[in-house]
Amino acid sequence: KDNHNAPCAVCYTSTKSVKLMIPARTSCPSSWTIEYKGYLMAEWHKHSSNRVYECVDENPESIDGSEANDDDAVFYFTASTCTGIPCPPYVNNRAITCVVCTK
């Protein structure tokens, strides 16, 4: 939801030792387990804190009662541009998908 805080989440499993985030994919390699899939997101491209890309679940959750329009840290979709990456397989100005896999 716009202007709501997102709950803190860490992908942890006690039975698997490796976690992998794959941009521009919605499935894991064979022998890997999909934990979730979603969209590659980051801070606004002109913010100085825009250093980390996160794979945000395609079904995001928010904290009830946390609505505020303070723009402290806001996730924006990461979109492809055909001037920087090959199209196809990418599509110009489309949100980039991602998947988080474990093994």
Radius of gyration: 15 Å
Average pLDDT score: 84
**Which spans have pLDDT < 50 for at least 5 consecutive residues?**
none
Per DSSP, what share of the residues sits in E-state strands of 2 or more residues? Answer: 25-35%
Report helical residue fraction.
Answer: under 10%
What would the principal axes of the Cα set say about the shape? flat
Sheet of most strands: 5 strands, antiparallel
GO cellular component, one term: extracellular space
InterPro entries: Ca-dependent_lectin
Characterise this structure.
With 103 residues, the chain is an all-beta fold. The chain has one domain. Helices cover 0% and strands 26% of the residues. The protein has no helices and 5 strands. It has strands at residues 19-23, 33-42, 54-57, 76-77, 97-102. Strands 1, 2, 3, 4 and 5 form a 5-stranded antiparallel sheet that branches. The protein is flat, with a radius of gyration of 15 Å. The protein starts with 18 loop residues before the first strand and ends with a strand. The model has no long low-confidence stretch (mean pLDDT 84). One of its GO terms (cellular component) is extracellular space.
Brief account:
The protein is mainly beta and 103 residues long. It is built from no helices and 5 strands.
Summarize the helices and strands and which ones pair or pack.
Elements: E1 19-23, E2 33-42, E3 54-57, E4 76-77, E5 97-102
Antiparallel strand pairs: 1-5, 2-3, 2-4, 2-5
